[in-house]
Amino acid sequence: xxxxxxxDKDRVRAFWAKVSGKEDKIGSDAFxxxxxxxxxxxxxxxxxxxxxxxxxxxxxxxxxxxxxxxDAVTKIDDLTAGxxxxxxxxxxxxxxxxxxxxxxxxxxxxxxxxxxxxDFTPEVHVAIDKFLAAVARALSEKYR
Length: 144
Known about the structure:
Structural class: mainly alpha
Distance between the termini: 18 Å
Number of strands: 0
Strand content: under 5%
Shape: globular
Radius of gyration: 15 Å
Largest sheet: none
Helix content: 55-70%
Low-confidence stretches: none
Mean pLDDT: 90
Number of helices: 7
């Protein structure tokens, strides 16, 4: 995937401004969708009592995930450095397969397109897709 251009970054920031205030629902929906569509991702959360869509734990983690994505938007000019601590956490402590970052990114892309059908133009789609791919790469940095 190609890198983010200045125009892509502007589109990501502008689109994310529209997401602002709706992050918790979007995070919960994307995380819930990932657990249903890609059930193998549940292995990292087997210690949770309830992995059903919209459960309290799923909502809480969805909120955590979307907060990290929102933070990544503010660090869009240097995602590798900006997400270093999250990369270390997922690589060394949580030992999450980095392929799951792409899976979550895909589910987030789907939810964003559903929640913002008029704003999710083809140009925004490309920019958000490139951004989420860059986030996944940055999170995978400590796996190398």
